[in-house]
Write a structure and sequence with these properties.
alpha+beta; MPP_PAP; metal-binding; Calcineurin-like_PHP; globular; Purple Acid Phosphatase, chain A, domain 2; Immunoglobulin-like
């Protein structure tokens, strides 16, 4: 009888919602509710919610999260401030019977002028699903006791209620006695929280005051010590502050907040999954690398393909911080690059809900997708799609930065409801087919349901669920020499001078070794930097043992001093490998007499051999020595430098590359060797990393933003950008893989009037006109590349001769932006003549003969901004 009554109520609710929605299905709702525009002020530090618990060395900042994927383990974390204390947690079925014990570990960290307390982490194992446990810690001095209930065993009809919160859960509200969001969530009786990023906002305080991590953790302890919170990293967790000497992203977060990432097959704590009751929850990282072939990309591909079982956990929920669909001008389209990379996967997987934060307001979308766009068809407006998820932006927890109340007008078709208020939401899963979602506005201290909707499961009930009930009412001068000694460390010294028989200077270097997989251990890899060199000067140098029998001698010429009319000739090579074709390419380039090489990524292709055979890194380096020992090669990393092979136990991206090939990144203010710049003659060359994080606020993003301001076109007029994955390519191979980076950075390069963008990856050749695609804003449909005299020429030169062969699948018809394309191996040269003109040539490898197949005169965008190329 009870089930019949519930079914009748559910049917009536759905029918009522369907009737209301059909009446107004054409447009979304922008709530007319207006919150008072008073300042968002921090609660005072002596507020009760920040109180340090009584007792000497009492455990504080207690919080729990899942210790495995399903909840049969729980990780308990806490801080002791006075001394280390005990790492033990005792637990059991009653507070008087804590008959089990687990031993944990501790960590500490320094951040600028702050040193943390002793941060403890302990995982309780062997738990039973859906069971209440009591636990205690602090047995050496002050004991504190808490409890939690494990989630039910994963099953298709297991009910569960999630709280959905972002952005500091109201630790910064106008009045000291109203931490509204958290209090309102607690009153709703949720079972666990899906936290979509931005915890303490410590980085908003002077010197990234990490004491604010402590106060925040004490503030939320009242909830997170009693139920698991599933953590997503937001931009305020980056804590990247090179001005303070802090260049390790996510340092406070990773020390304080563990995640069960290893249980999900992930290699980093920022992306992982859990299975709770009837839900499979995937957590993604908006501020880690997610381009094709990166660890996060590889993990998500496998997660969706092999580990999601909708028959067991029918509800598929995805968490991220930066929203993909957002009609607020604050942080508008900042999540676009990740959407471009992953949206089709989520639609194909029939994801039910995507939760995001970042934008400090609330918005819920209809089921829309924007997956038909292919760079030339103009299909770039989101369209209704029953397989698509509902996108919910809930960055409205109550943070210190205040409300984002600047919505775009008109409201886009994909937006169902939006309001600029603080609040939280709940998602109550009823069974395999239905879940009830409600958003609770903080209304002058009272919890008010302002938006609600029944969601139908995309796997078990794949119908359009645009039925909803809305209850809201209102709204140069140094050169680094590297070499390998295979058996012994030998000498780290380089001797150099102006004559081969008079090497009067010395430079002391260092050496390193690395292992890869189970069988390979490198030789001794030496790096030494020769300093105090003069511009435009030939130097001789020798490496190896001091006795002349084993020393080897070489020479190089330094680039001329930077100046606007200094001529220089670059060789342009990409995707070289070590085949017979590769040998032709290198020989032909040597015959061209270039001064230096801009290498556009994919060096040895060692990862194409069984076990990522790193001996191929050694053979490749011996192969190219005939050129690279005599002139500088400027390195760009490609996907074949990732060498990410968890099946071999290798989970550190770029391990062989970074051990072998140094770059002058520190000299250009970069914090990683993967992105940097050099200034050679009249050229400012910027190297970007396609397979490192480049989303907004990431280190690479911040560096490029500053670097473009440092470019002085009066001194180095030619602005050249190197990147591996092309932004404009009309070849079916790797088609549009560089799109997410283009979306992030193209406007910057157009505004900076970059002259040339060089890419590889696609194993053919192509040159474009000066085009751009910067008018698109997700809703206007303007998504076709158009002529733009301020835009760079894009050159794809991934045709060095690698083992994978040619990419001969050009798309037809040839796009307007494409000037010349050919599926052949070869190389190119760019000869800068003066500040206004440069001559470009592409040399085809034609049956072993160097043939000029394409050429053009380029006019400088800064000094000669007319289109004559």
């Amino acid at each position: 009888m009870g089930m019949l009554r519930w079914g009748a109520h559910l049917l009536l609710l759905l029918l009522a919602a369907a009737t209301w929605t059909c009446a107004g299905a054409g447009a979304g709702v922008t709530s007319e509710y207006r919150r008072k525009l008073e300042a968002t002020v921090d609660m005072p530090l002596d507020a009760d919610v920040f109180r340090v618990p009584p007792g000497y060395n009492a455990p504080q900042q207690v919080h729990i999260t899942l210790g495995d994927q399903t909840g049969t383990a729980m990780t308990v974390s806490w801080v002791t401030a006075n001394e280390l204390g005990s790492n033990t947690v005792r637990y059991g079925s009653s507070p008087e019977k804590l008959d089990r014990a687990a031993e944990g570990s501790h960590t500490r960290y320094d951040y600028f002028n702050y040193t943390s307390g002793f941060i403890h982490h302990c995982t309780l194992t062997g738990l039973t699903h859906a069971t209440k446990y009591y636990y205690a810690m602090g047995f050496d001095h002050t004991v504190r006791t808490f409890s939690f209930t494990t989630p039910p065993k994963p099953a298709p009809d297991a009910p569960f209620k999630f709280g959905l919160i972002d952005s500091k859960v109201a630790a910064n509200r106008p009045h000291p006695n109203v931490s509204h969001t958290l209090a309102h969530y607690e009153a709703n009786g949720g079972d666990a929280v899906l936290f979509v990023g931005d915890l303490s906002y410590a980085d908003n305080y002077p010197l990234h005051d990490n004491n604010r991590w402590d106060t925040w953790a004490r503030f939320v302890e009242r909830s997170v010590a009693y139920q698991p919170w599933i953590w997503t990293a937001g931009n305020h967790e980056l804590d990247y502050a090179p001005e303070l000497g802090e260049t390790v992203p996510f340092k406070p977060f990773t020390h304080r907040y563990p995640t069960p990432y290893r249980a999900a097959g992930s290699t980093e704590p920022f992306w992982y999954s859990v299975k709770i009751a009837s839900a499979h929850v995937i957590v993604l990282a908006s501020y880690s690398a997610y381009g094709k072939y990166t660890p996060q990309w590889t993990w998500l591909q496998e997660e969706l393909a092999t580990r999601v079982d909708r028959k067991l956990t029918p509800w598929l929920i995805v968490l991220m911080h930066s929203p993909w669909y957002n009609s607020n001008n604050y942080h508008y389209m900042e999540g676009e690059t990740m959407r471009v990379q992953f949206e089709r996967w989520l639609v194909d997987a029939k994801v039910d809900v995507v939760l995001a934060g970042h934008v400090h307001s609330y918005e819920r979308s209809r089921r829309f997708a924007n997956i038909d766009y292919n760079i030339v068809n103009g299909k770039a407006t989101p369209a209704a799609n029953v397989d698509a998820p509902v996108y919910i932006t809930i960055g409205d927890g109550g943070n210190i930065e205040g409300i984002a109340n600047n919505f775009t007008v008109p409201q886009p078709a994909y937006s169902a409801f939006r309001e600029a208020s603080f609040g939280h939401a709940t998602l109550e899963i009823k069974n395999r087919t239905h879940a009830h979602y409600a958003w609770h506005r903080n209304h002058d201290g009272a919890k008010a349901v302002a938006d609600a909707v029944w969601l139908t499961n995309r796997y078990w009930m794949p119908t359009n669920d645009d039925v909803h009930i809305t209850l809201g009412d209102q709204t140069g001068r140094a050169m680094t020499v590297s070499w390998v000694t295979p058996k012994l460390p030998d000498s780290n010294v380089v001797r150099y001078g102006l004559r081969a028989d008079n090497l009067t200077h010395t430079a002391n270097g260092t050496f390193r070794r690395y292992s890869f997989g189970r069988k390979y251990r490198s030789g001794f890899i030496h790096h030494a930097t020769l300093t105090g060199l003069d511009y435009g000067t030939k130097y001789h140098y020798a490496v190896g043992s001091g006795d002349t029998a084993s020393a080897r001698s070489f020479s190089f010429t330094t680039p001329p001093k930077p100046g606007p009319d200094v001529p220089y000739k670059f060789g342009l090579i990409g995707d070289l490998g070590q085949t017979f074709h590769s040998n032709d390419t290198l020989s032909h380039y040597e015959a061209c007499g270039g001064d230096a090489v801009l290498f556009i990524g994919d060096l040895s292709y060692a990862d194409n051999h069984p076990g990522h055979d790193n001996n191929r890194w050694d053979t490749w380096a011996r192969f190219v020595e005939r050129s690279v020992a005599y002139q500088p090669w400027i390195w760009t990393t490609g996907n074949h430098e990732l060498d990410f092979a968890p099946e071999l136990g290798e989970t550190t991206p770029f391990k062989p590359f970074t051990n072998r090939y140094p770059t002058p990144f520190g000299a250009s203010g970069s914090t990683r060797p993967l992105w940097y710049s050099v200034r050679m003659a009249s050229a400012h060359v910027i190297v970007l990393a396609s397979y490192a994080a480049y989303g907004k606020y990431t280190p690479q993003w911040r560096w490029l933003e500053g670097e473009l301001r440092r470019v002085d076109r009066a001194v180095t007029p030619w602005l050249i950008v190197c990147v591996h994955s092309p932004w404009y390519s009309s070849n079916g191979y790797h088609y549009m893989e560089g799109e997410s980076m283009r979306v992030e950075f193209e406007r910057w390069l157009v505004d900076a009037k970059a002259d040339v963008v060089l890419a590889g990856h696609v194993h053919s050749y192509e040159r474009t006109r000066r085009v751009s695609n910067v008018a698109y804003d997700i809703a206007n449909g303007m998504a076709t590349p158009v002529f733009n005299r301020s835009a760079p020429v894009y050159i794809n030169i991934g045709d060095g001769g690698n083992i994978e062969g040619l990419a001969d699948d050009f798309r037809w018809p040839q796009p307007d932006y494409s000037v010349f394309r050919e599926a052949s191996f070869g190389h190119a040269t760019l000869q800068i003549v003066n500040r206004t003109h440069a001559f470009y040539e592409w040399h085809r490898n034609s049956d072993g003969v160097k043939v000029v197949a394409d050429h053009a005169w380029f006019t400088n965008r800064y000094w000669f901004p007319t289109d004559t190329n």
